[in-house]
Structures are given as structure tokens and as C-alpha cells.
Amino acid sequence: MEGSIPRVSSRLIVLVGPSRSRNAAFTYLGNCTVRVLSALALIVTTPRVLGALGEKNFGIWAAVMSITTNIGFLDFGLGNSLVSRLVPLISNSETDSAKRTIGSASWVLTVIGATSVPFVILGLGNWTKGALDQAQSGAYGGLVIAGTCLGMGLALSAIPRVQLALQEGYITTIFQAFGVVIGTCFILLASSTRLAIAGFIAASLSGPCLGSIANWWYCLYRQCPTLRPALGSFDRKEARLLLSSGVLYAILALCQQAAFYWDPAFVLRLLGSQAAAQTAIISRFYQFSFVLTLATAPLWAAVSDAVAHRDYAWVSRVVRRLVLTSGLFTGLLSCFLIAVGPLIAERWLSGRVHLSRAAIAAAGLTATVQAIAGALSIVLYLPIALKRNVVYSVLATTAAVAAKTMFGKALGLPGILLSSGATFGAIYLPFAVFTVRCVVRREMR
After folding, report:
1. Tell me: the pLDDT tens digits for 389-413?
2. Would you list the domain boundaries of the chain?
3. Counting Cβ atoms within 10 Å, is residue 194 exposed (0-12), middle (13-18) or buried (19+)?
4. What span, in angstroms and rounded, lies between the C-alpha atoms of 77 and 301?
5. Which of 135, 157, 260, 378 is geometrically suited to a Cys-Cys bond with 139, CB 3.0 to 4.6 A?
6. Contact at 8 Å (CB) between 298 and 350?
């Protein structure tokens, strides 16, 4: 007979109306806070890192960081699959099944993390070989550090998903904020001691790793010890179930990251490290737009719960507000940056990197499209819309990558930055709006 989850299940069963809205608001505000902290940290550290490494080495550092911090698809979608699996188990107080699921997911993620390290190191090394050969000593050692931190992060990534399934994702944000603060301190220390690229990569990734370790301990030993699996808790059937349902989520993660977050790596390969440095600076300008875009992702669990309770009015209200807020804020930010962005960069970085308004405008269009798509994704990640979402995401991402590869050198930096916004705006957004309207109107079952 299944055990009970007295500390959490009673709250999940009644998460409707105001209770669901309250937890969703806490999670959303918590994620916004973390994103703002991250943006502020980038504003503070970028001039220091640029001054310590120089423009070329800074571009390489930024490209490596953009990839290693945005390879979520390497978990094969198991994280999102874990959320979908845990929500009904916790709601029904099926403790034993929930513990088996968490244990199985943790073991699989640990194996993936351990085996992915050499592939990440070799892949990054091959992709950026020309630039790395011209970099200062220690660049290849930085890849080893990046791969190791990535593997550790994958092994611990089940815990934030457990908290998301409990609709207490705001707790995750506390430890993420801790990691941002510690990482920022490490970067400032590295810049004052003039470390090589490897030292800056270690400083950048060590803070988030420490935050993940602290969150793992708090979740399993303080927040919900009744869900702590035994050391040998592994069920082969459960692991296969999680992986089989996670493939689609992995494809979506790969599409999102290849289209929107790997531009520094594309630019590094096609245009060189100086253009990659410019891309990194522009992306830092738009970090505040990503505050709203990335903060919407954890609301997926709340929307899933609302659909299960047939509270479509709540879903419609939330999506409409998120689309308007994200799209309007990012559009206004883009106009502001087009007008004064080059002047801000000139004074902020003491003239070491020069930006064009065309590149800022291209990145602004892409950021606006990404913000609207991110707001719609809280519905598009639901099982009833998932397969269609994958099809159109693959089409849009394929078109974006092809455009970057084919026209990158001809159109320069603005062409690469514009590709994702143009293709997703033309291919993906019409489908996304139509699908969300169908879900809200209960036309998809």
C-alpha cells in the first residue's frame, strides 16, 4: 500500500483558484528576481572580464559559457518528463511511486552527466578549434572545467523539477540567487588576479554548482524528506518510461537553445572572436528582456494543474497577461537600446567594443519574438499540444540555423542575430497562437 506525503500532498490537492495563483506568482516573481540578479551581475562583471582577457579571449569565454549553460537538451527531456510524472503521483499521495520515480531519474541523470563530459569537451574543442588555437594558454583546460561542471549540474537537475512538481519552484530560485552572488564574487576575484580563460570559466560555473548542491540537500533533507529515495532506488521500467516521454521535451530544448542561445558560438565560428565579443555584449543588453521570458517557464506546472481542473479561464487570463507584458516590455527595451545602446557600450566598456545599431535592432526583433513565444510556451508544453509544438519548433529552428549558416558571412553580425527572430516570427508564432486558442477554447483534448 502506498504511503502518504503529509507535508505536501494536502496543499497540492487544493491548489486551485487563489492558492494556485499565489504559488504561481511566488515562482514567477522569484524567477524574475534571479534573472534581474543575473543581469546585474553581467553588467558588473563584463567590463572587468573584458579588461582582464582582452576582446578576443573575452569572445571565446562568452561563446563557451553560452553553450555550456544552455545545453538543457542533454538530459534527454527527462527533467520535464519527471514533472509530468510526479504531479499526479504527489497529488494522489503515492509516496513509494514518487520516490521510485525520483530515484530512477536521479540515477539516469547522473549517468548522463558523467558520460556527457567528454563529448562536450571534444565537441566544443572541435567547433571552436581555430579560435582556441589563437587564444591564451589554458583555453582547452577551460573546456575540461566547463564539461565537468556541466556533468555535475545534470546529475543534480532532478531536484528543481521535484520542487516544480510541488509548485514550490520559488525555493529553487533562492538557491539560484545564492549561486549567482557567489559566482559574481568569484569572477571579480578572478579579474583582480588576472587569471587565464580557464580560471574565468571555473569562477563563472562554480557559483551555480554550489547553489545546486545546497538546493539538493535542502530539498531532500528539509523541504520534503518523505520523498527522499533510497540510495539504490532505481526502477528500469520507470526509467524507460521517463526517457521515452522525455524525447519530445529534449527536442524542444535543443531547438530553443540552438535558435536563441548559441549565437555567440555561431558568430565565433563564422565571423571570429571579435564579432563574438560584440554578440556577447548585445546579449547582455537584452538580459532584462530574458527576465520575463525565462521566468514564465516554471508556470507550466500551474497551467497543467489548471487544465486538469478545467479552469480554462485562469489559463487564458495568465497567458494573455504574460504575452502583453513580455512583448511590450521587450519591444520598448529594443527601441531604447537602438537609440542609445552604442553610446552606453562606449562609456560602459571604455571604447573597447563598438556596436552597430543594425546588430542591436536585429537582436531586438529576435528577443521580442522569443519573449512572446516564451509566454505561449506554458501552454504549448502541455501533452495535448506537445507533438505539434515539436514539429513547428523543428521547422523554425532548421530554417534559422540554415539562414545563419548560409547568410552569416554575407550579411555579417546583423544577419546572424536576425535569423531566429525572422524564421520563428514567420513559421512558429502563427502556429503557437492558433494552438493556444484551441486549448483555451477546449477544442483540443
Report:
1. 999 999 999 999 999 888 877 888 8
2. 9-440
3. exposed
4. 15
5. 135
6. no
